[in-house]
Amino acid sequence: MTAVEVIGELFAGPGARDHLGEPVPIGEHMLQAGALAEAAGAHGALVAAALLHDIGHLLGENAGENAGENAGENAGENAGENAGEDADEDADADEDRHGEAGARWLGQWFSEAVTEPVRLHVPAKRYLCAADAGYFGLLSAESVRTLSLQGGPMSAAEVAAFEALPFCGDAVAVRRWDDQAKDPGLTPPRFAHFAPLLGALVRG
Questions:
Q1: Is 106 within 8 Å of 52 (Cβ atoms)?
Q2: What is the pTM of this model?
Q3: d(CA 71, CA 66)
Q4: Which of 7, 162, 166, 177 has its CA 20 to 30 A from that of 14?
């Protein structure tokens, strides 16, 4: 299978139908984000990053070496007793690492112009909460809840370090599209619409 076909299977799979506490399923959310980036005239790699920013949520055991931090091995342990509590803890841990896991997995095919905004979109939320006085009020209830799991607003030193990163601006753009891409009344383009763009970005 090609890289695009592998990614397409994730968008078509059962994980993409999980809402993760938001008004729209995660697959629809990512498609909305990609469409917002496209409508804003973003360059191709940035459209791809917006489209794929939450791919880490869909990977599970497919995340590649260490990407899931032994999630597959741990999934079978204690599956009966306290299963619901364990599932909640796993979901919360995933919130903190899904950007890193997704970027690492995508790195087998794509350049840093795609993977770095994916990796940094969670820190970008922490950054914006510290750097933009009006940003916190734009967050969904679920994004507010997960903010504490992700480290809370950045310190002044963290803000300065983040702003020095080469893909800081792109990560912030992806974060803002991420926050906007939660409209249950919107029907975005299907994955096939973005497939040619992704195919053109895959490294030869």
A1: yes
A2: 0.84
A3: 9
A4: 177
Whether residue 88 has pLDDT greater than 90: no
Which amino acid, residue 70? N
- Measured at the CA of 98, the angle between CA 92 and CA 100, to 5 degrees, comes to 135
Q: How far is CA 141 from CA 15, 26, 99, 155, 177, in A?
A: 21, 16, 20, 22, 16
d(CA 18, CA 157): 36
Q: Return d(Cα 204, Cα 194) in angstroms, integer.
A: 19
Query: d(Cα 176, Cα 171) in Å, to the nearest integer?
Result: 9
119-142: per-residue pLDDT in tens? 999 999 999 999 999 999 999 999
The answer to whether 182 and 29 are in contact (CB under 8 A) is yes
Cα end-to-end span (Å), the chain = 15
Determine which helix (DSSP H) or strand (DSSP E) holds 4, and give its type and residue range: helix 3-12
Specify whether the CB–CB gap between 3 and 194 falls below 8 A: no
Residue 70 CB neighbours (<10 A): 9
Q: What is the pLDDT of residue 14?
A: 95
- Neighbour count for residue 18 (Cβ, 10 Å): 14
